[in-house]
What does this fold into?
Amino acid sequence: MLNVVIFGGPGSGKGTQSAVITEKYSLKHLSTGDLLRAEMAAGTELGKIAKSYTDAGNLVPDEMIVRILAKAMDGIGQAKGVIFDGFPRNVAQAAILDEMLAQRGEKVSVLLDLVVPDETLVERMLFRAQISGRADDNPETIKNRVKVYHQVTSPVVDYYVAKGVCVKIDGTGSIEETSALVEAALDKLV
It folds into this structure.
């Protein structure tokens, strides 16, 4: 199986690139953000707790994410692999992901790190807020999300660099330009 971690700061294009490559490579897109939003929309207890974290621009605790992700992983069906979007968000989660995959006889094939400057991330998220109306895309929350990304999340790149499975992708171009770089990296693996 092709198990891809799509990575980058908030607004780097992880969801957009996931949508592009999911179809081409017959992968199941597992977005922790989408999974969490579904829990919130359903009004589950887990969703209510998660909402209190995301509304403040903070990360949802690992144990909550792991429960949701494990359930989704076990339901991937006939997909040729998985794209993990929004997970792992810290080194502890990376280790948990490795363990969860190992229990299924799998491992992370590649971490695609979409590299985008902070200023561009903020611009993209403010633009997205105008279009989507997402409550968590406001200037104060956006700045906090970028700060949390650098403090907590970006060390995951080093974790996967050490494992030899990290590919850095210039995410500053158009969707098509970034997609071409992503596809070139994935084509080497399939």
